[in-house]
Hints:
Blueprint: E1 21-23, H1 26-49, H2 54-74, E2 77-80, E3 84-88, E4 92-97, E5 101-106, E6 110-114, E7 119-121, H3 129-146, E8 151-152, E9 161-162, H4 178-193, E10 204-207, H5 209-227
Helix pairs in contact: 1-2, 2-5
Amino acid sequence: MTTPDHESAAPKPPASEFKDRAYRSSGGIAGGVLLLAIAGWLGIDAIVSGHGRTPWLALATLILVVPLIVAFTLRPAVHANEERLRIRNPFRIVVVPWGEVVLLRSGYSNEVVVKAGGKYQLWAVPVSLRARKKAARQEARATAVASGEGRRGRLGGVFGPSAPSGGTAVPEGPVRAESDKVMDDLRALLEAHEQAETAQGEVTVRWAYEIAGPALAGAVLLAILVATG
Length: 229
């Protein structure tokens, strides 16, 4: 896990070498849509057919839950071009010029480390240990096929290694998990542009009040309803 203004008569600046690349989690988007559908179905049903305080409790819960679902599933995205990395996390938007990036680190999560000492997680590029293990198995299998050891006869290799069938394709280069491929792309952009004059500047962080505000209002309303019940 990407907007045209009125054109003036002034000369246009040269086109960027790279357009924005957008990365998002397809699994997160699918999960978010499903959760929103379930929350909407249950919440609207309770508001329409509920009695007493139930409709108000359902409304407060929806006001609290819907922004949180959007924040953690549909909202996260990473946008990158030759000048900067723009990270849209659940509650913050972080813009990091390439000149300020020290390291793009992959472990149990993918992070960008900046010169000021801070680090920011890339929520839109989640690490899947299962996908890494699957990629490692595919890499081992492809290596075995390429070296002629992919298939041997059942009699202890009496007939020697057999060649793979014509339909079997050996991938070019190492097999990588999808999130690792994204990090490889970002590292390539960093290496190519970290010294560029247009890629210098300060790291900026903006809080997502459009998410936090409604969620906080829903939490306050829900707390009042529960306390006065």
